[in-house]
Amino acid sequence: MKQIYAMADTLSITDNRTGKTYELPITGGAIKATDLKKIKTEAPDDTGLMTYDPAFMNTASCRSRITFIDGDIGVLEYRGYPIEQLAEHSTYLETSYLLLNGELPTPTQLKAWEHHVTMHTMVHENIKKFIEGFNYDAHPMGVFVSTVAAMSTFYKDGKAINDTARRKLQMLRLIAKTPTIAAYAYRHNIGRPYIQPDNELSFTGNFLNMLFKMAEAKYTPNPVLERALDVLFILHADHEQNCSTSTMRGIGSSHADPYSALAGAAAALYGPLHGGANEAVLRMLQEIGSVSAIPDFIKRVKGGEGRLMGFGHRVYKSYDPRAKIIKRTAYEVFEVTGKNPLLDIALELERIALEDDYFVQRKLYPNVDFYSGLIYEAMGFPVDMFAVLFAIARTTGWVAQWEEMLLDGDQKIFRPRQIYTGARTRDYVPMASR
Ligand code: CMC
To answer: Is the CB–ligand 1 distance for residue 308 below 6 Å?
Structure first.
């Protein structure tokens, strides 16, 4: 039978406590949470109805034009362009231009953007001294977070967030300098001298140069590995309102400078449930050790002893489209580096998980982090660096989302509400009476 719908874009709510009915407008598939405030009882302390949404499972915190995800069917688009097409045809810097400006660049615009980024890759000499202060075994992600935060003391104009030219300059600085900071964190870790940026190389080629150059006069990146890293950077460049991006927007909403906000976003990324997952995947594969140990491992996961890292996603309830591209890229990289011996364990884990009821019922599929670690390891990156690589790529998304938030007239300082469940007013008890 044909369904008959009313023609109004509104939601009628009857409050059964009072019998009153309210009509709330629906815009873009959402009601405004603040419209619920008018739904209240006569009680003097009733400030109006709220929604309770820990972990923001179903709350839109903004309107955004940057990244679209349909998690049910595994679609990811930047500014409307499917991720598969960007991974196939674009470069990280072109994608970064797209995310920041909304449109693909013309050849002249791209050339100018690449030139500007290249011209801003160097960091102040004092940043090197700053990195020197870390222990030799400091986790590079800790170094990255702290050094990005320290950049706010070097670029005081970062506070001028309402001045378009100066705001854009900080965004450019962050995109250009994060690879340099990451490379220096790595070189410090392994006790090798810092390598100056090479302006003749591509964004990722130069990054590989700053990481891996030894005594040769000029570093020449392997083109397959350079392209693979560029593709990985494209895939990680943005992912709408995830934990770290929401942190960037949240800190930015207090009008802190973008270096401080981005350090906070990177700290959020560091956790093993977010960008730290690729490191956790590799450690998990190493711990499993062999294909024969997989059934026992899966049994333990199903019994609640830990998670299958690199599986599951808050938004994707099907195969993460980025994971498909990464799996393909892994084979291209292994042609050059030789197969990562952990690949067989990963493939078997995936095979079992895709058939096993526990994972099927919960719609747990491989996510972006499941295969990326295998590529990074084969390329010579230590496991500690994985989250840092994610942070470099995501810098574009963070600054694009930060700027969108600043220019959005609907936005104010972030300040969620709470449902207070603690004790109410009581008199202080002197120590002697307790
Ligand atoms: N292994 C085993 N069980 C899992 C997993 C997993 N990886 N992920 C979720 N579950 C189970 C979970 O135990 C729960 O089961 P039950 O209903 O019986 O309690 C159910 O699936 C729903 O899980 P949830 O924790 O409520 O889901 P969430 O949306 O809050 O968590 C997630 C999303 C990504 C944090 C989670 O899937 C996870 O911890 N995955 C492993 C870490 C990981 O790979 N993170 C990278 C995410 S992609 C990169 C990025 O964008 O950061």
So the answer is: yes
Q: At which residue do the structure tokens 């895709």 appear?
A: 354
Q: Are the beta carbons of 26 and 363 closer than 8 angstroms? A: no
In terms of Cβ atoms closer than 10 Å to its own Cβ (0-12, 13-18, 19+), residue 189 is buried
Which two structure tokens, joined as six digits, stand for 305? 């002893």
- Note whether 286 and 329 are same-domain residues: yes
Q: Are 277 and 369 in contact (CB under 8 A)?
A: yes
pTM summary value:
0.94
Q: Are 118 and 176 in contact (CB under 8 A)?
A: yes
Q: Is residue 426 part of a domain?
A: no
Per-residue tokens: 383: 């496991």
Condensed to tens digits (0 to 9), the pLDDT of residues 389-416 reads 999 999 999 999 999 999 999 999 999 9
Ligand 1, from 361, 364, 370: best to mutate by most atoms within 8 Å of Cβ?
Answer: 364
Q: Tell me which residue of 379, 360, 387 sits closest to 243, measured CA to CA.
A: 387
Q: Is the CB of 373 under 6 A from ligand 1?
A: no
> Count of domains in the chain?
2
Map tokens 């392994």 to a residue.
190
Domain residue limits at 380: 70-409
